[in-house]
Amino acid sequence: MFEKEKVPVLIIGDESVASGIFAAFVSALAVALERMGEATLVYGRDCNTAEELGAVLEAPLKCIIGFQEKFLCCAPVVEKGIPCFQFIFDNPFELDGMILKRNDPLYITLFSDRGYMNDALRFCGQKNALFFPPGGNADNLCTIPASERNMDVAFLAGYRLAPGDDYKWEDDFYRYFYEYMLAHPSKTFREGAEELLKIAGESFEDDELASMMRLLKHTCNLATGAYRGRVVEQLLEQGVTLHVFGKSWDMYNGRHPERLIRHAGVHALKADEVYKEAKISLNVMSWHRDGITERIIESMLCGAVCVSDETSELKNCFANRAELLLFPPEKPEMAAAGIKYLLRDTEMLDRVAAEGQKKALEGHTWDLRAKQIMGML
Fold it and tell me: What is the pTM assigned to this prediction?
């Protein structure tokens, strides 16, 4: 399993989450650590049951790395005093369980969105929260020019139905919040709630705002799905054809469904096969307004041009129209115009793809993230 003299790193993530995305992260990070000469133990590969996982704790461990994993917060782990690194991808107000309640010097939370990190520091009592987005798998590098690929535009994300006119809102504030966020998609959910409460003349403390945000969790998810549908419908309306994946797209009820090319669902471990076939990879943020997602990095490493709604971090890290294509969240029609231009100008398409791949390889791989984590020990 590992060399006797080496103390291993335990890596754990739930394979059932989001088409196996955590499993893909675990696999890529394990390979990156092993390339550094680290020994690794991977739950699901080297140990497969709760009993085996408990037995692992009886031996020395260098650290534990988890992906929104409650195991890092269980009593045996805390009592053993093992350094733990917890990747957090979702809105912290959706993670009210053990994950954000643990708060000690050996527990470091790694956020893919700087706004979520700040909310965790302010509202959840986290003292060791860092902005630390996921990496991409450098082994998936593809040098086939984007212009020579089969798919024009691929979108590896599911579809969610937006609430209809007959939707039963629990409270009028929930509906106002939903409508406000769709009208102001550049704002974070917390910013939107704060502004609506101020408009209503309500005074509130941090703990009251945090309680409100927890009640709004489902409404946030509804807004995220509705915004994604709005972007897709705008692209289809402007004549863009999209390759989409998974059964959820059978529910699509917007305009121009004939411009959707439907494929079977794809496990996250196989996502690179899609990106390598695509000229352009569409990304729509799940309301990460100051972060980076793995879909962006993976598609760039695979040599596709990434088109995404902009975030503060994306604008800081990448050159718009030179390494990827960003559009303001309020103006998805700009995505359609940019995509059509890139498909016409194949020289620019290939140039942006090559420059994006270079930037992702230089600063956004799991190999780099592995070195950064080990450097914190």
Answer: 0.95
